[in-house]
Design brief:
Layout lengths: L4 E5 L2 E5 L8 H7 L19 E5 L5 E4 L12 E3 L12 H8 L9 H12 L6 H7 L11 H8 L9 H4 L10 E5 L2 E5 L3 H9 L5 E2 L6 H8 L5 E3 L10 E6 L2 E7 L4 H7 L5 H7 L5 H4 L4 H6 L8 H7 L2 E6 L2 E6 H4 E3 L2 E2 L6 E8 L6 E7 L10 E10 L2 E10 L6 E2 L1 H7 L6 H14 L10 H20 L9 H8 L4 E2 L1
Parallel strand pairs: 1-5, 7-9, 8-9
Antiparallel strand pairs: 1-2, 3-4, 3-5, 6-7, 10-11, 11-16, 12-13, 12-16, 14-15, 17-18, 17-21, 18-19, 19-20
Helix pairs in contact: 2-3, 2-5, 15-16, 16-17
Length: about 475
């Protein structure tokens, strides 16, 4: 067992002990590693000025260094803006930023260049790929057009790939235990070690992606007395497909990043894949995990509505063994889980909804990209001969937890597929929830969304398949549901 973390920064080995382990990566790079090109602006993973590339077991990927703890980087290779250039020659992305006037004040530029260098290594680019890849990088000077031009005009065909220039750290298979000033950090290599550590302490913060915990540290002065990382447990890297009794399900280990999960389900669960495309930024998805999103227990978590209507199950491991919990029984109240002190969430089993079912997912937020939801919904439905054979509906942002809508589901069963049916169901939905007002939306706004979303679902799902006689102006009003992104 080691009492330090080790990683590479631009090819140079670093071993970090004691208090510095609890620093954010951005601060360590600037204060200890001399890599001052990495900038800190928002300190909450929104602006991308702090973007660096991190490689653990696969390829390099852009991440926000302002909300990552140094402790999380054990066994990684990190490339900052200082390492992008190829020796004395600028990287083609850097040269293109100069040639196309992609920088003005320059403070955001290092983050853009790092993210663009990663994009350029992924093959030919078009404007859509560039815009999607730079969602997590903000600029308040250029208006973005010159930056997008710089990315599109970068020719990296003759530039050595970063993976060939910077090696990886060999995993020595050792657990890491670091104590300093009353704080302890533990990164075990086995599930049994993790369970034992958690069972012996009353207050343990599990730090994996850390996209929320990092914000707490920077904005609230949060300091966990005991931190447990699951990152080094290879058994939790599982991402696979299982077939059982005619049901396809995806097995997702606790270490599986949202970006990997998103790619894996592109053709298996395309509707959820589309929602994940507007889940945070690439930097967030490259660090955050599906299991982390589940365990964080936010009532507006973007992945949960699908998991509710699909019937996902959560695997919990503890000193008495493992057990499976249906996801709709996992949440006992706001941030309260059916999780014992000695238990950790190890895997999620995510069913693939049958192709014969109609499935639509919705996210409502003030901005399409890089924004927290005000309201989320998943609607799954089967219809036979123009009638609804069954419906499963989950709403987020309307209660302390994501909730199923049993009254609406019961009402819809057996009803004809018509706009009148879904308008009536919307009125019932409005009575079944009790949302609050907050900075993302008022109670009345959310109630209206609960009602409107069912009419929108009808037009999205059935207007081409089912003959209807509805005036066009009525159809248009049904489609307007307060900034819904499907």
């Amino acid at each position: 067992m080691r009492d330090f973390v080790q990683f590479l920064v631009n090819g140079r080995e670093h071993q970090v002990r004691g208090r510095s382990v609890f620093k954010t990566l951005a601060n360590y790079l600037r204060e200890d590693a001399g890599a001052t090109g990495t900038k800190v602006v928002c300190a909450e993973g929104d602006c991308g000025a702090c973007t660096v590339l991190v490689r653990r077991r696969g390829e390099f990927a852009p991440v926000n260094s302002c909300i990552l703890s140094v402790a999380q980087l054990d066994g990684t290779s990190i490339v900052t803006i200082e390492g992008i250039a190829n020796g004395p020659s600028l990287h083609p992305v850097q040269q293109s930023m100069i040639d196309n006037h992609g920088s003005q004040c320059g403070y955001c530029t290092p983050g853009f260049v790092v993210a663009m260098a990663d994009l350029a290594e992924g093959g030919p680019l078009d404007a859509q790929k560039v815009r999607a890849g730079l969602t997590g990088n903000l600029c308040r000077c250029t208006g973005y057009d010159s930056i997008i031009d710089a990315a599109l005009k970068s020719d990296c065909s003759s530039t050595p790939r970063l993976c060939s220039r910077y090696g990886r750290v060999e995993d020595d298979g050792q657990s890491v235990l670091i104590e300093d000033g009353g704080r302890v950090y533990f990164a075990p290599v086995s599930i049994a070690e993790a369970i034992r550590f958690k069972s012996e302490r009353a207050r343990v913060t599990i730090l994996n992606g850390g996209t929320d915990v990092g914000v707490w540290v920077n904005k609230r002065g949060f300091s966990a007395p005991a931190t447990l990382s699951l990152t080094k447990i290879r058994a939790l890297d599982d991402l696979s497909v299982e077939e059982s009794a005619g049901q396809t399900q995806i097995v997702v280990g606790a270490n599986v990043r949202l970006s990997a999960f998103q790619s894996f389900i592109e053709h298996r669960i395309p509707e959820l894949h589309s929602i994940l495309a507007i889940f945070g930024s690439p930097q967030i998805r490259n660090v955050g995990t599906l299991v982390g999103n589940i365990a964080n227990a936010s009532p507006i978590a973007d992945t949960l509505p699908y998991l509710f209507v699909a019937g996902a199950r959560i695997e919990l491991a503890g000193t008495k063994g493992s057990r499976l919990v249906p996801i709709d029984r996992f949440y006992l109240g706001y941030k309260k889980l059916d999780l014992a002190q000695d238990e950790i969430v190890t895997r999620a089993f995510v069913p693939v909804v049958a192709a014969s079912d109609v499935l639509k997912l919705y996210k409502v937020s003030r901005r399409t990209d890089l924004d927290i939801s005000a309201f989320t919904a998943a609607i799954r439905m089967r219809q036979i001969d123009g009638r609804i054979a069954g419906a499963t509906i989950a709403y987020g942002g309307v209660a302390p937890v994501v909730m199923r809508m049993p009254k609406v589901e019961s009402f819809l069963k057996g009803k004809p597929v018509s706009i009148e049916t879904f308008e009536a169901a919307g009125a019932i939905a409005r009575q079944e929830v009790s949302p609050i007002s907050d900075v993302r939306g008022s109670r009345e706004y959310r109630l209206q969304l609960c009602e409107n979303i069912l009419s929108k679902f009808f037009f999205d799902a059935f207007t081409e398949a089912v003959p209807i006689d509805v005036p066009m102006d009525r159809r248009s009003s049904g489609r307007s549901s307060g900034g819904v992104t499907a």
